[in-house]
Amino acid sequence: MHTAAIDPTPWIALNLVDGLGSVTFCQLLLHFQSPEAVLNASFSALRAVVSHEVTQGIQSALDHPKLAPTLDWLAQDDNHLITLAHPHYPKRLLETDQPPPLLYAKGNLQVLQKPGIAIVGSRHATPQGEQTAAQFAESLCRAGCSVISGLALGIDGAAHRGALNADGATIAVVGTGLDIVYPAKHKPLAHLIAQHGLILSEYALGTPSIAYHFPRRNRIISGLSVGCLVVEANVDSGSLITARLAIEQGREVFAIPGSIHSPVAKGCHALIKQGAKLVESTEDILSELKHLNLASTHQPISPSGLLPEWANLPSEASTVADCMGFDPMFTEQIATRAGLTSSQVSSMLTLLELEGVVSQLANGQFQRLV
Questions:
Q1: What is 9-107's CATH topology?
Q2: What is the pTM of this model?
Q3: pLDDT by residue (tens digit) across 275-320?
Q4: Which CATH number fits domain 109-292: 3.50.50.60, 3.40.50.450, 3.30.565.10, 3.40.50.300?
Q5: Angle between helices 315-324 and 342-354 (to 10 degrees)
């Protein structure tokens, strides 16, 4: 634990009070000047600021059953509490309208010192979208950024994995307590992030996954960042909430275009119409952030052409891939474009899928990945 100069007990105790959200927590700090003073305040003094129920919770906060286990958790290596009084509290987040009064953290706090780029998008991403997110994340990390996302399925997870492929500078902001991994499928990924990057939450240990926590989580993702990249998003995607918050917080917003026929491109196209910068490469992002003096990177994002690994496949395989482009297509559509039979196309798709060139989607369509 690296918070010896700050007693974490009163901060955690207040964070455990039912009904005491981050906005009211900050109001209490402004009124009483410190969490210790809040806990020592009289009933009438507290009632002047908060409700009767919250006042009762505050006056019994030091007896909360979760307080001791949380302090034990904090005593473990690489577990931290970052409060508004902490020297590591992120400056960019502090400048937002509703900075969380405290953050539970697991991992390497030094990642917070790097300029962060949020990468967000659909939970139901296409294979190509996930590949794009991972490539952008890796490239941005190699340029000196950290990659910030929300550990969700789809684009979030791909962005974290891409960052781990570089120097591991990735921050996962979650909507649960740090003793819970949601989705459970990402437990191995969360473990790697805790080893090489950082996991953050404003929620007390034991807090389960609750729907309304995630839009609040998004304000931290955008608040930590200097810019927000949306890779794939439906028009009703939660990632557009992050983009909207980024705009409100004065951050740069970037969006990757896609096919006009793809539902997961429509959210990005809407952002571009509203003024987000259309990006095709990492350089498009770095050019907007010149004041940060980041390293230039020339890592390709969208490789194309026949790759050596499958150059020895039948010529029909190249024909099929070329005819597909990068939009999802059914076998019959590919056959019509390629001038081949459906049987021939099916055989070539099987070979291409084995080589990692295409992937079959849940609806039976195929999508080219490289």
A1: DNA polymerase; domain 1 (1.10.150)
A2: 0.82
A3: 999 999 999 999 998 877 666 554 544 443 334 455 567 888 888 9
A4: 3.40.50.450
A5: 90
